[in-house]
Amino acid sequence: DAKTTQPTSMDCAEGRAANLPCNHSTISGNEYVYWYRQIHSQGPQYIIHGLKNNETNEMASLIITEDRKSSTLILPHATLRDTAVYYCTRPSNSGGSNYKLTFGKGTLLTVNP
Amino acid sequence: DAGITQSPRHKVTETGTPVTLRCHQTENHRYMYWYRQDPGHGLRLIHYSYGVKDTDKGEVSDGYSVSRSKTEDFLLTLESATSSQTSVYFCAISDPPLSGGLLEQFFGPGTRLTVL
């Protein structure tokens, strides 16, 4: 299965940028990287995805290194409501009909007042 | 929300009894997934379906079976529940990736299962 590596936990001060790293050194050329987050006991929620260019949406920015072996999710102005587990993931298989995501343990981001 | 419900939301059962969890969607998405979430393990994929009557195993499929006889329903069955299957179970739905690669999964509210 696809593998990503993330720190177990991180802290961030409210109003500051939160930078969450992810290592995906075995990613292949046509595989996207996805980021989801899970707040408390709710189901995970999609944040952003990317292939090789940096991406930005209303929730976050995604910076992917040129060799695509790692990426960083950036929450530009973290709020207390951003406290959650953040998952970096990629599809286990590409092509065919077997589209699925495996999530791992993610990073617990705690935003402090 | 993406029109996905799970039932029951909470269940307590005894070891050795069969248990069926239901995931129901109103979005007509092609793919459906079952995950379990346990402390220290994150989210782990149990089984998934890529179409009616088309299913495949995930990371932790032992002790679980699934069925999908129609687009809107995906059932997860524990034939003989064990205490190690005490967990929170999440269902998710999605469609095949769009041209921009988006594989956005929408998750249900979860089912908390306790096996005594």
Largest interface pair: A-B, 26 and 32 residues
Largest sheet of chain B: 7 strands, mixed
What's the number of helices of chain A? Answer: 0
How many strands appear in the DSSP assignment of chain A? 9
The average pLDDT of chain A is 89
Categorize the overall geometry of chain A. globular
Give the strand order, joined by hyphens, for the main sheet of chain A.
1-9-8-3-4
Number of helices of chain B: 0
Mass-distribution shape of chain B:
globular
Roughly what is the average pLDDT of chain B, rounded to an integer?
92
Distance between the termini of chain B: 32 Å
What's the helix-strand series of chain B? EEEEEEEEEEE
The residue fraction in helices of chain B comes out at: under 10%
**SS-based structural class of chain A?**
mainly beta
Q: What oligomeric state is this?
A: heterodimer
Give the low-pLDDT segments of chain A: none
How much of the residues of chain B is beta strand, in percent?
A: over 45%
Architecture overview:
The complex is a heterodimer of chains A (113) and B (116). With 113 residues, chain A is mainly beta. Chain A is built from no helices and nine strands. In chain A, strand 6 (61-64) and strand 7 form a beta hairpin. Chain B is mainly beta. Chain B is built from no helices and eleven strands. In chain B, a hairpin with a 2-residue loop joins strand 5 (42-51) and strand 6 (54-57). The relative contact order of chain B is 0.32. The A-B interface holds A 1, 32, 34, 36, 38, 41-46, 49, 51, 85, 87, 91, 97-106 and B 31, 33, 35, 40-45, 48, 50-51, 54, 56, 58-59, 88, 90, 92, 94, 96-97, 101-110.
Protein topology:
The complex is a heterodimer of chains A (113) and B (116).
Chain A: E1 9-13, E2 18-23, E3 33-38, E4 45-50, E5 55-56, E6 61-64, E7 70-75, E8 84-89, E9 107-112
Chain B: E1 4-7, E2 10-13, E3 19-25, E4 31-38, E5 42-51, E6 54-57, E7 64-70, E8 73-78, E9 87-94, E10 106-107, E11 111-115
Parallel strand pairs in B: 2-11
Antiparallel strand pairs in B: 1-3, 3-8, 4-5, 4-9, 5-6, 7-8, 9-10, 9-11
